[in-house]
Design brief:
- By secondary structure, this protein is of the alpha+beta class.
- 41% of the residues lie in helices and 12% in strands.
- It has nine helices and seven strands, in the order ααααααααβββββββα.
Length: 282
């Protein structure tokens, strides 16, 4: 009488030779001719996990074609800690590949982000443009831009927060690597002027730099008349990155604005009580 585990129908899908290997006690001797030395790699399952999978497959094959198959399939999924769909894929792999299908196979596209190329380009472009010069844009803000863009296009399938972060991770890490913390004392900091002169920065207040930013706000007067977006000019100490002075106004960047910002940085900061400042500028 033939073994019920060795039936050759398409529904059963396991040959007598494969079933013998499944029933083998010496797992290493049975599996090595089939899968070779790759089982010793990082993707290989432990011997205990291999034995569990073989045991559960035998259990499932024993009820193949019966009314109990669905119930046993759910029990096997729970025992192996995987979904029913994963059990079905495991059985299909075992049928198509033999014992090799039992093992966890490494994916060729592992570690890559699978998303629409247009969305990928939009996310990267938005992040780069949002972090040019002195502007700053976080991944969360990029994700908001993606949702707005999807609404404009009228599409429901678009990258979510996790996908946006995964795409931007290498760009974020690159920017963080380039940033300098306060009091940085690694390799000597050097600045190169337009004339090609290199200046080594060794202490605070040795070199100040002025940066101009068009504020992302609209200002109106008391009557509600729109005045426009103001320019913020800040004076930064190159060594410590401390803000030494500033100037806020509607005039575009010029030498005059630089002088006003430097004046504010040099002179003492004394403000009337009417400003209700929480801290003093020391």
């Amino acid at each position: 009488m033939s073994n019920p585990l060795c039936q050759q129908s398409n529904n059963q899908g396991v040959s007598e030779e494969e079933t013998s290997a499944l029933q083998s006690v010496d797992l290493c001797d049975a599996l090595e001719p089939k899968v070779g030395r790759e089982l010793l790699g990082p993707e290989a399952l432990s011997s205990r996990e291999i034995e569990r999978r073989i045991s559960e497959i035998q259990r499932l094959l024993a009820v193949r074609g019966t009314a109990r198959y669905g119930e046993v399939q759910r029990q096997v999924a729970q025992s192996l800690g995987i979904t029913v769909r994963s059990v079905q894929r495991l059985m299909k792999s075992c049928h198509e590949q033999g014992l090799v299908g039992i093992f966890k196979q490494s994916r060729k596209d592992r570690g890559t982000v699978k998303t629409d190329p247009d969305w990928h380009d939009f996310i990267v472009k938005t992040y780069r443009e949002g972090n040019r010069a002195s502007r700053q844009m976080s991944p969360a803000q990029v994700e908001v831009r993606v949702r707005v863009r999807a609404q404009e296009l009228g599409v429901e399938d678009y990258p979510g927060r996790t996908t946006v972060y995964r795409i931007l991770r290498p760009y974020i890490e690159k920017r963080q690597h380039q940033k300098r913390s306060l009091g940085w004392r690694g390799d000597r900091l050097k600045l190169k002027t337009r004339e090609g002169i290199e200046i080594e920065i060794e202490w605070s207040n040795q070199v100040w730099q002025v940066d101009h930013t068009l504020a992302d706000v609209m200002v109106v007067d008391q009557a509600g008349v729109l005045l426009g977006r103001p320019w913020l000019s800040i004076v930064v100490d190159t060594y410590s990155r401390c803000i030494m002075g500033m100037h806020l106004g509607f005039d575009p960047p010029s030498a005059q604005l630089v002088c006003l910002a430097l004046r504010h940085g040099i002179l003492p900061k004394r403000y009337p009580v009417a400003y209700e400042l929480k801290q003093t500028w020391e």
